[in-house]
User: What shape does this take?
Amino acid sequence: MKMIHSLFLINCSGDIFLEKHWKSVVSQSVCDYFFEAQEKAADVENVPPVISTPHHYLISIYRDKLFFVSVIQTEVPPLFVIEFLHRVADTFQDYFGECSEAAIKDNVVIVYELLEEMLDNGFPLATESNILKELIKPPTILRSVVNSITGSSNVGDTLPTGQLSNIPWRRAGVKYTNNEAYFDVVEEIDAIIDKSGSTVFAEIQGVIDACIKLSGMPDLSLSFMNPRLLDDVSFHPCIRFKRWESERILSFIPPDGNFRLISYRVSSQNLVAIPVYVKHSISFKENSSCGRFDITIGPKQNMGKTIEGITVTVHMPKVVLNMNLTTTQGSYTFDPVTKVLTWDVGKITPQKLPSLKGLVNLQSGAPKPEENPSLNIQFKIQQLAISGLKVNRLDMYGEKYKPFKGVKYVTKAGKFQVRT
Amino acid sequence: MSAAPAYSEDKGGSAGPGEPEYGHDPASGGIFSSDYKRHDDLKEMLDTNKDSLKLEAMKRIVAMIARGKNASDLFPAVVKNVACKNIEVKKLVYVYLVRYAEEQQDLALLSISTFQRGLKDPNQLIRASALRVLSSIRVPIIVPIMMLAIKEAASDMSPYVRKTAAHAIPKLYSLDSDQKDQLIEVIEKLLADKTTLVAGSVVMAFEEVCPERIDLIHKNYRKLCNLLIDVEEWGQVVIISMLTRYARTQFLSPTQNESLLEENAEKAFYGSEEDEAKGAGSEETAAAAPARKPYIMDPDHRLLLRNTKPLLQSRSAAVVMAVAQLYFHLAPKAEVGVIAKALVRLLRSHSEVQYVVLQNVATMSIKRRGMFEPYLKSFYIRSTDPTQIKILKLEVLTNLANETNIPTVLREFQTYIRSMDKDFVAATIQAIGRCATNIGRVRDTCLNGLVQLLSNRDELVVAESVVVIKKLLQMQPAQHGEIIKHLAKLTDNIQVPMARASILWLIGEYCEHVPRIAPDVLRKMAKSFTAEEDIVKLQVINLAAKLYLTNSKQTKLLTQYVLSLAKYDQNYDIRDRARFTRQLIVPSEQGGALSRHAKKLFLAPKPAPVLESSFKDRDHFQLGSLSHLLNAKATGYQELPDWPEEAPDPSVRNVEEEDLSLIETHVGLLGEYTEVPEWTKCSNREKRKEKEKPFYSDSEGESGPTESADSDPESESESDSKSSSESGSGESSSESDNEDQDEDEEKGRGSESEQSEEDGKRKTKKKVPEGKGEASSSDEDSDSSSSTSESEMTSESEEEQLEPASWRRKTPPSSKRAPATKEISLLDLEDFTPPSVQPVSPPAIVSTSLAADLEGLTLTDSTLVPSLLSPVSRVGRQELLHRVAGEGLVVDYTFSRQPFSGDPHMVSVHIHFSNSSDTPIKGLHVGTPKLPAGISIQEFPEIESLAPGESATAVMGINFCDSTQAANFQLCTQTRQFYVSIQPPVGELMAPVFMSENEFKKEQGKLMGMNEITEKLMLPDTCRSDHVVVQKVTATANLGRVPCGTSDEYRFAGRTLTSGSLVLLTLDARQAGAAQLTVNSEKMVIGTMLVKDVIQALTQ
Assistant: This one.
C-alpha cells in the first residue's frame, strides 16, 4: 500500500493551481490523462473517479467546483483514497469557511502545512480536525492582522496532546465560560413519486449534528424516546458501540466543536409521510413550437407544521428555447443555456396554493421531447423530525458544571423527485 | 552558482508571465524584476536574524513549491535555517527539505545533525517529527543513519514515536530494499506492540515490506482482532485487508466444506496431528469416520468475523467497504447478508463513493443476489444521477431481477427508456435484453416492448433495440416471423450500421420464415451496397450467400452481383469474404468438396448468445481493491489466496512463553537487550510442555482463544509486574504502561540525583521478598516466583508460569547501562559503524530514559504483589514506596472498598505512611499527577509532618475510568519527590449492587452475546463449600451477592465505578468439581479480566 503519492488541485478551467508530493516528484503532465478523461466525459460528474494510466493510477474527487486528483502507484482500496480526499476537502472547508480556489490560494501555506500533517509518506497521519487545529491554527481576520504586525504564526507553539491520548478526537484543556451542547436532528426525505402521484420509493435519511462547547472532559449520554426507529446507524468514532448495542444509548466523550454524531436511516419498510404533493400537467404539442406547463404544489401530511423554503428545479429538455410563465407566488428563473427552470416558492399557505403556469417555446422544427422532465423539490419543515424520532434526555458525567442543552429538529427534502 | 537561479527558474516551466506571487510582499515589490534578483531578495531575508523576515521568505518559497515552480537554487539559504528556533519557520524548512533533498544530496547532509539532535529530544513529539523528516529525505547515503534511528524509535517509550518509526519503515525500504531483513526485524517487534496507535501503521509497513511473511502475524493475530475497534479508521482498513488475506491462508472455507468431506483417510490422518488444539477428540472422529468431519469454524476465524462486524457502522466508507469485502470473502453464506444494509447506506454518500460501492455491489449481487433483494428500491435511478452512476445502478437492478420482482423492475425500466440521457437509454435496453434472457416468463413481454421501441424517433434507441432483439430472437425464432418482417421494413430508415447489420443477419438466418421479403431486402441492399459501412457489407454478403443456398432461383443473379461488387471493394476483409463465399456456394469443378457442405456451413443452427454481466467473475479480485475496480491486476496487487484444503496448525496463534523468550532474545520490547538469566530457562520448560495441552483444550470455549491472546507474554514482559501476569493484563493495562514509562521518562530525564535513587530502588527490588514478608501475611504467592517455585509450578496455572519471564528484568543494571553510554554521533559518517546484522545487537538507549524506565519497573513491581488477589491478603497492604527508595519513608496502600466520599466514580485508596528514618518528614502531599486520559485523582490533604517512627493514614480517590491503567503521581515531601503508581486489580474497579434474582436475570438477558464471557473450570476440593466460594469471589472482585434459589449457583452483581456498567457474575457448580463461570458486562475487557482473576482465585 503505497497510498497517495501526489496530489493536484485543478479548477474547472483546467488549471493546476496546487501540487503536493509526498514522495518523489511526479510531473504535472500526468494530469493530461485526467484532462483527456474529463473531455471524454463531457459532464464533470461523469469523470470516472479512477483512471488508469501507463505508470500511475489517478483517483479523483470533484468537490465544490474543484478536482482533487491524487496519483497512486500501486494497489490501494480506492475508497480509502476517496474518503481521504473528501476528508481533505472537509478540512479546508472547516478552516477557511469554504473550499474554493480563492480560499486555497489565499492560504496556500496553511494548506501546505495541513497536507503535510495529514499524510506521512502517503499514509494518513492526523485527520481529526481537533488535532489539526491544535497543530495549525485556522486563520481568522484578527489573527492574520496580529500576525502581520507581530510576525507570529499560525502554527501552534504548544504541541498537541490529543494524538497521544486514548481519545484522539478531543483536544485537552478545553475551556468555555458558557458551556453549551446543541444537537440538530436533521432528517431528509428521499423519494421518487411517479406520474400518478403514488410513491415509488421513499425513505428517511437522518443525521444528528452536534455543536459541543463544553469544558474539560465531559462524558455525554444521549437517549431517545424511540430508538428502535433507527434502522441503520453509522457512528462518529467517539461513540461507544457496545453501549448502543445493549442499551440503545449514545454514550460518548465528544470532540470539541461541530461534528456529525451519527447518521441513520429509517427504513423504507416503515411508511414515510410525504409532506407535499404536486399537480402537474406538462405537454408539448406535436409539430408546433410551443407547449404547456402547469404545476401546483400543495401540503399533504405536514403534521400541522408550515412547509417553507420550497424550491422546484426542473431540467427542461434541450429543445426548449424559452418559457413564458406566471406564478401566483414566489419567483421563477429559466436559464436558456443550461435549460434549468428554478421556481422559488417560499412558504405554502393552504388557503391559496402556489402555482406556476404558462407557455413553453420550443425550437421550431425539432421533434417534440419524448419525456416530460422530472421535478426536483426542496422544502424544509422546522421543529419536526418526520420519522417521529425524539431525543429523550442528555446527561453529562465527568464534569461538575451545568451545561446548557438544546435539541433542534428539522425535516428537509433530500433527493425528492417527482416524475411527470 | 550565480548563473544557476536564472537557469532553474526557466526550468520551472509553467510559471506564467505576470504571476502575482510576490506581489503582495512590499519588500520584493516591483523594484527588481528579474527572477534571480528576486531570489536574491529571498536569500537576504533568509540570512537575516529576524524570524518574521525568515518566515515571510519561507512562506513565499512554499507558495512557489505549491505551484510546482522550481525553488531548488535556494537550497543553501534555506537549509541553514533548519535549526531555527521559530517553530513555523522550522516546519516550512522541513517542507522544503523533503521536497528538494533528493536533488541536492550533499547540501541536504548539512541538515542531518539537527534531526539527530531532535531524535534525542526529551519531548516525544519532537523526536517523532525529527524521525519523520529524517526518513522523508530521500538521500541514499543516510540509509544507515535512518536504519539506526528507526530501530531506536521502535523501542521508544512513546507509542507515538513508535508509530512514526512504523511509518518510516516503508520509506527506508523504498530507498534501499537491501535493508529488508533488518526492517522485518523491526516490523516484527512493532507488530508485538499493544497500542492501537501503532497497530495500523505497522501493518501498513508489513504490507509494504514483507506481505509474504504471514508467519509474523500468527502471534499477533488475536491481539490485532481485539484492538481493531479502537484503531483509527485508516489503520482499520489496512488491518482488515491484511487479515482477510491471512484468514484465507489459515482457515478452512466456511462454505465449501462438502468438497473437503470427500477427502480420504490420509487427510484425516494429518488433521489428527495438527488439530489437537482445535477440536478436542478430533483424533477419535478422524479414526472412526474418516469420511465425515463436520465443519467447525476455527474460533479465531469466528473472532475475526465477530470483531469486524461493529465496524460496519463506521462513518468511514473505506472501513465499511473493507468489512464488507472481508465478510464476502470469509463469512459463511448465511452471515454475509449483514453487509448489505451498510453498503446501501453508502449510496447516500459522495458520488465517487457511490461509484466504487456500486461496482462492488454489482459483483456481489451476481454471486449473492438474495442479499440485496430487500434493498431493490434503493437502486432506483433518479434523473439527476450522473450517467456513470445510472449505468451501474442499472447493472445492479438487472442482477437483482428475478421471477417475483421483474414486473416492478420492468416498470422502472419503462420510465428510464424515456430518459433524455441517451447513453443511459441504450444501457437500459441492454438491461431489458438481459432480463428477458434470464427470466423466461417475461421474454415475450420484453420483446414486445422492444419492438415498440423500434418506432422510437431516436435512432440510437432503435438501433440498440434491434441489436437486443436480434439476440432475443435467436432463442426462439420460429414464433417471431412478424417481428422479423417488421425489422425488414426498418432497413429503409435505420442508418446505424450495427443495427442494419443485425437486421440483415436476422433475415439471412431466418430467411425461411420470411421467404417473400428476404430477396427484396437483398435487392435493396445490392443497390446501396457501395455506400454501406463495412460491417453492413459483410452482412450483405452473408445474406446473399444464405439466400443463394435456400432460394437460388430468385437470388442467383443478385448474389453474383453483390459478390462482384465485393470483389473490388476497398476493404480487403470484404474482398476476402467475397472470394471465400463464392468458392463455397457456387459449385465449380475443383471446389466441390466444400461446396457440398455449404448449407451446413452457413445454415447450421447457432447457439443463442448468452447475455452476461460484465461483472461476472470479477470476484476473483479482492473486492474493494483497485484491481477489482479496474478489472485488471494493478501493480502491487496481492492475490487473494484460495482456501487451504486442510487448515494449517491453528496452535501457531496461541501465544506462549517460549516465544516470549525468543522475542526477548532479539530485542526487549523496551529496547534493552536483556540477557535471559539461566534460571528462567531451566526446568520450567519441560514441565510446561506437559501443561500446554490441557490449557488449550480448556480454552476450547468461544472466548477461550481470545483470552489467551490477551495474556500474550509480551504484555507481561512489558508491564514488568508479575502480578499483572496473574491478573491477566489486557491491552489496556499494557498500553498504560507504555505511557507510564513515557511519562516517567520525561520526569526522570537528566536528573543525576534521581539516578542514584534509582540504584537504590534497584537494590530494594532484590529484597522484595523479605520486604513483603513484613508487609503482608501471605507471601507464598509472591515467593513462588523465586527459585523455590519449581516444586510448586506443576500445581499452578499457566499464567503463573509466566512469572519468571517478567522477573528477568532484574538483570544487573550494568548490563543495561553499557549500551546506553555509547553515544553515537550520527553525522560523523566515518566513525559510524552500521548496525550489525545480528538481531541481538543492542540499540543505543538514552541513559536517562533507561533510568526512568527502571524506576517504573521497580514501582509497578512492588505495587501489585500477587497476594493482592488472594482473599486473605486483600486487607493487607501493597507497597507504594519502599523504605530504601523513600529514604526512610514507607508508603503502603490498600483498596478499602468503601465508597469514596467526594466522587462516587472514584476508587478509594487508603495510603499508609510511616516514617522509619530519624528525621521528621514534612509536607507530604501529592505532586502534579501526569495521568492517562480519563483518569483523575482526588488528592489527600497534605500531611504536615510525620515524626520519626510515626505513622499516618490518608484517603485518596482515584477514578480509573474503568480500566486497569496505572495512576501515576508524585509523592512530594518538602525535600524530595517520589514517583509512584497505583494499578488496580480489575476487581476493585466496581462496587457491589444489590438486586433480586429476577432483576439479575432480566439484566443478564440484556447482556448476552458479545457481552457474555463463559469459561469452564474445575473447582479444587478445598473450594467446594459455599462459604469458601463466596469468600473467594468477593475477595477477588468487589461484588455483592445476589440471593439465589438453587443451591449450586452463585450470583454476584456490581457496577463499574466510572461508567456504572453492570457486571454480573454467575458461577454454576452443579457437577462435583466442574463449574462454569459466566460474566456479563458490556465492558468486555473488564469482563474478560474478571473471569480470569476469579478463575484463578477459585482454582488455586
In short: The CA atoms of residues 1061 and 1075 of chain B lie 25 Å apart. The two ends of chain B are 80 Å apart (CA to CA). Chain B touches chain A through 116 residues (CB under 8 Å).
